[in-house]
Give the backbone structure.
Amino acid sequence: MNVPIWGDQAGQFLKLDCRHYRGDRPCALGVQGVCPAQCAKHSPMGYRILIIKLGALGDVIRTAALLPGLKEVWPQSHITWVARPSGVRTLANHPLLDRLVPFDAETLCHLEHERFDLCLSLDKEPGPTALAMRVDARDKRGIGLSGFGTPLPLNPECVPYFQLGLDDDLKFRRNQQTYQELVYAAVGLKYRRQGYHLYPTDAQQGNARRVWSALGVVPGEVVVGLNTGAGHAFANKNWPADKFVALAGRLIAQNGWRVALLGGPDERALNASIAEACAGVLDTGCGHSELEFAALVQRCDAVVTGDTLAIHVAIAGDVPAVVLFGPTCPQEIDLYGRGEKVVTKLSCAPCYRRCCERSPNCMDDVEVERVLAAVQRWVAQGTQPGQPVGKLIEAPV
């Protein structure tokens, strides 16, 4: 696409389509003043893509699997992603993203003035779908907003993905596709199990090293992370605390491994109670930023978690995940061959219910023995003959 270039009689220009041009500061690659007529560093944006994905943070992370697929189709492209502030922080430093912007009024003002070749809208809520309808894009795919304020699919390929939200039997029983398969198909791209990664900075990695060192973890020790929270949106999504205590005790007594508790602010009291109930359990703290948390997870040899953010953080860090499923759909999760699903045997699951009085419930049904065996299998797979057991941890910086 030809982008107008402003210039004067002296042959000096502003190359407005260059990914290094910023306008309010010197060129990102150090070119001073206006752009020279022939600039060896000129890098046209090419195909301009806008991704609108706010959603739950775990969904934002796994949606990043789209990025390599987009680059395969449009190698010379400029990708902007609109997310909530937590998503902006989590996807920071991603080498396939040119721009991350928060979903706010300032972003709306400048996006409405820009032009895109492709807009991918992947949420169903009014805010993001309305933004998709307002931006100037030649091709819009995913989900938009009707004049009645209700969501609708923007392209034929998106219809099967859209229908999952309208038909419980389709979502709970008949669908066997993972989220990534569904999203790739919804935007008309070919899914080949493209993966996703997170990119903590050196400072964030250094924070994780200091945490592990303060807890006495040394190079070569096996560390199993227990992510104890799973949110409050659906009933019984969390594994009971007494089961985490029992699992931690077995891992320490039978294997001599280090067991570390992971979580966010909502798990502070829960993790403190588990650590108090089981001698030897390490509490990594619950006040870390998103990418500091990712750096902590990357040190683990395996992570036990419910269907929540920590799955996708583990996958992004190539850490085996043992995932416990009760009320949600295990078939939608792609572990990329790096983990195992331990699924309730109760026939009422999945249900996505907001409340449930059943006792024992679906997560009560997930036995400690099944989880223990899965963890032991995946830690054993990561141990290579002639190599030290456990991941190395560098000295704190």
About this structure: The longest strand covers residues 136-145.
